[in-house]
Write a structure and sequence with these properties.
Elements lengths: L8 H8 L3 H9 L6 H14 L5 H8 L4 E6 L6 H15 L3 E6 L4 H13 L4 E5 L3 H4 L1 H6 L4 E6 L8 E4 L1 H15 L4 E4 L10 H10 L3 E4 L8 H11 L4 E5 L2 H13 L8 E4 L16 E3 L2 H16 L8 E3 L2 E3 L6 H14 L1
Parallel strand pairs: 1-2, 1-3, 3-4, 4-5, 5-11, 6-7, 6-8, 8-9
Antiparallel strand pairs: 10-12
Helix pairs in contact: 1-2, 1-3, 5-13, 9-10
């Protein structure tokens, strides 16, 4: 039978010939109800199409089974994939998700925290670089558990599921060294400097060669001038590694628009392994951040804290390099041999 918003718990009680309190116990699973009575109530619920009020249950149980998830920019394809993984994991465990898109705006962050607090949210997952520092006082006042996601290092106050960015950078560096790139340029973002540049340091460690660092104000807006700058300062072949896949794809297209061959003249590596990275031509070499494991660990942490765990250790998620055609080994090495032969 179709669900009806007009059917109330009193209707179910009347149909079942029991009290509303008995119906409530059947729905919540709390308290004793005989088997025969339970079956009678469940049949009435099905017959009438009764759907329990979520808000009413929250008031009765003091538990909303709602988790807030704060992200930084829904327009970046990395975040919808992250949200999808966490939502699937949350629903599997019986939780609903409230999504908050902060756009790294401190006023938005503060307003969202007020909203989540006033709506009796069980816990909050935060995937916004720097938000824990900007909103630390307000976060400390929140009554439920808070877990930080996709951080590059463990936080002093809140459980953190950190991404092992040094390892991701190291894997890229080793790969580029193996296929023969002697010059590497890392295109990052300004906020990385505050985190100690773990991807950049890992990249240098794995590459064993010179790695230049560039942090443009807005790469997607100023791709042309950045490529002009890179080409003015470097002779091909060289490799470019970027902070995320979107930046890598934008740069790759601009290099190709100028007639440069990928990967023979310019190798390109992104970070995040968004779905689009496998679909562009050439397909993008990138780092998969293992979002399924991140989602699993995020909900494990929330549930452990809700169950009374006082202090959780920081956890790191290991990334994995995904090699595709933008750094195809055979093409790079063939081009390198031709260049060396011509010298």
């Amino acid at each position: 039978m179709a669900r009806s918003s007009h059917v109330t718990i009193r209707d179910v009680a009347s149909s079942s010939r029991v009290s509303t309190a008995t119906v409530s116990r059947v729905i919540s699973g709390d308290g004793y109800v005989s088997g025969a009575t339970r079956e009678r109530v469940l049949r009435s619920i099905e017959k009438l199409g009764y759907s329990p009020s979520f808000a009413a249950q929250s008031l009765r149980t003091k538990k909303s089974t709602v988790i807030g998830l704060v992200i930084t920019d829904i327009k970046n394809p990395f975040y919808p994939e992250l949200v999808s993984g966490i939502e699937n994991e949350a629903q599997r465990r019986g939780y609903s998700l409230i999504l908050c898109n902060s756009q790294e705006d401190s006023e938005r962050e503060s307003a969202y925290l007020d909203y989540l607090s006033s709506h009796r949210t069980d816990g909050i997952l935060i995937c916004v670089p720097g938000m824990a520092n900007r909103q630390r006082d307000k976060l400390r006042k929140f009554l439920g558990p808070i877990v930080l996601l996709n951080e590059s290092k463990v936080d002093r106050d809140f459980p953190t599921i950190a991404m092992h960015d040094f390892e991701g950078g190291r894997q890229i560096g080793e790969h580029l060294h193996e296929i023969g790139f002697k010059k590497i340029i890392y295109v990052g973002v300004a906020r990385e400097v505050k985190d100690g540049l773990p991807r950049f340091e890992g990249l240098k460690s794995g590459a064993g060669t010179r790695v230049d660092y560039i942090a443009p104000d807005n790469l997607l807006v100023d791709t042309e001038s950045l490529v002009t700058r890179i080409l003015a300062q470097n002779k091909t072949p060289f490799a470019v590694v970027t902070h995320n896949d979107i930046s890598a794809i934008a740069l790759m297209h601009e290099f190709m628009n100028r007639g440069l061959k990928i990967p023979e003249e310019v190798g390109i590596v992104g970070y995040d392994d968004i779905a689009m990275s496998a679909l562009v031509n050439p397909a993008l070499t990138t780092v998969n951040q293992n979002l399924e494991q991140l989602a699993h660990l995020a909900m494990n942490s929330i549930e452990a804290l809700l169950a009374g765990e006082k202090k959780l250790k920081g956890t790191e998620v290991l990334p994995e390099l995904v090699v595709r055609n933008s750094t195809l080994k055979s093409k790079v090495q063939t081009a390198t041999k031709a260049i060396n032969k011509g010298r």
